[in-house]
Specification:
By secondary structure, this protein is an alpha/beta fold. It folds into three domains: 32 residues, no CATH class; 56 residues; 158 residues, Nucleotidyltransferase, domain 5 (2-Layer Sandwich), CATH 3.30.420.10. Helix content is 43%, strand content 13%. The protein has twelve helices and five strands. It has a five-stranded mixed sheet, with helices on both faces. The longest helix has 18 residues. It is elongated and about 100 Å long. InterPro entries: HTH-like_dom, Integrase_cat-core, RNaseH-like_sf, RNaseH_sf, Transpos_IS3, Transposase_IS3/IS150/IS904. This is Integrase catalytic domain-containing protein. One of its GO terms (biological process) is DNA integration. Involved in the transposition of the insertion sequence. It holds the Pfam family rve_2.
């Protein structure tokens, strides 16, 4: 009896069932130190649908409200739950879960143009074979207090990794040059630097930096944002997933938020263009292949 008293609940229930013909259930429960309610309690088994609903809601919240049915299907598969996108959409509708991208609107801001006679070497070939084969860059505007601030990203096309960023109140070539200089990898490994024709990309300091590291220059066609679609898409994601609804008091607040976003983007967020892997996973897999 002493051993049973210190056993787990299932063992106690089994002991009571084996002896309830000789002793009262109340006496057995009292002896084993449990209430009658505990003895009679039968835990509810979570059904498959309940598990699916829980994980759909949980993964949606973890994604900061951006994952739709396709990416949620991938995340559920990681939990050993095989569910169709149609069912996930139905559950999302029942739970009132709407991806931030559902009503996305693409807007093109007019800007002055860099008329330099530089070819579009990228030519919308957004899938590359090696890390740092082509990096792309662009700038976007964000409100900080009552002022307009700007963010500059540099993205590696191979794994969509944000490899550098800066924030500034001045949208100029100095900002772009500083972003290049802050790239976390060896600049000599970069083969092509592609941007649109914004005047902030036309500067002697930038050209000198690219020449020093033997990086080829590539520019989009005039008035064609789709030639730099990956950079445009990255900023669209930033606004939807990182800064929408946020209020920044100063440049440090903005910098801290962008740092947080780039960590999420590079190490946690799965990307459809990467077969639902993170940039970090793709980079590590490529390096592992190179070492074999």
């Amino acid at each position: 009896m002493f051993k049973v008293k210190n056993a787990d609940m299932e063992t106690k229930r089994h002991f009571i069932n084996e002896n309830k013909e000789r002793y009262s259930i109340s006496a057995l429960c009292q002896t084993l130190g449990i209430s009658r309610g505990t003895y009679y309690y039968e835990p509810q088994v979570c059904t498959f649908d309940e598990k699916v609903r829980y994980h759909v809601e949980n993964e949606f919240k973890k994604s900061k409200g951006i994952y739709g049915a396709r990416k949620l299907k991938v995340k559920l598969k990681e939990q050993k739950l095989i569910v169709s996108r149609q069912k996930i959409r139905r559950i999302m509708k029942e739970l009132g879960l709407v991806s931030k991208y559902t009503q996305a609107i693409y807007k093109v801001e007019s800007q002055s143009c860099n008329e330099a006679a530089i070819e579009n070497l990228l030519n919308r070939q957004f899938k590359t074979k090696n890390l740092l084969e082509v990096v792309v860059s662009d700038l976007t505007r964000v409100k900080v207090g009552t002022k307009s601030a700007y963010i500059c990203f540099i993205v590696d096309l191979y794994n969509r990794e944000i490899i550098s960023f800066t924030c500034s109140f001045k949208k100029d070539a100095k900002m772009v040059a500083e972003t290049l200089e802050k790239v976390r990898y060896n600049l000599q490994d970069i083969q092509i630097f592609h941007t649109d024709r914004g005047t902030e990309f036309a500067n002697y300091r930038i050209s000198e930096l690219l020449q020093k590291h033997q990086i080829k220059r590539s520019l989009s066609k005039k008035g064609c944002p789709f030639d730099n679609a990956v950079a445009e898409a990255t900023f669209k994601a930033l606004k939807k997933e990182g800064v929408e609804g946020e209020k920044f008091r100063n440049l440090k607040d903005l910098h801290d938020k962008i740092y947080e976003f780039t960590y999420w983007w590079n190490y946690e967020r799965i990307h459809a263009s990467l077969d639902y892997r993170t940039p970090f996973e793709v980079r590590n897999q490529r390096l592992a292949q190179a070492n074999t």
